[in-house]
Amino acid sequence: MKRIRYCSDCKIYTLMEKCAKCGKDTIINSPTRYSRDELITKYRREIKRNTLKEKGLYG
Question: Is residue 2 within 8 Å of residue 30, measured between CB atoms?
Answer without folding.
Answer: no
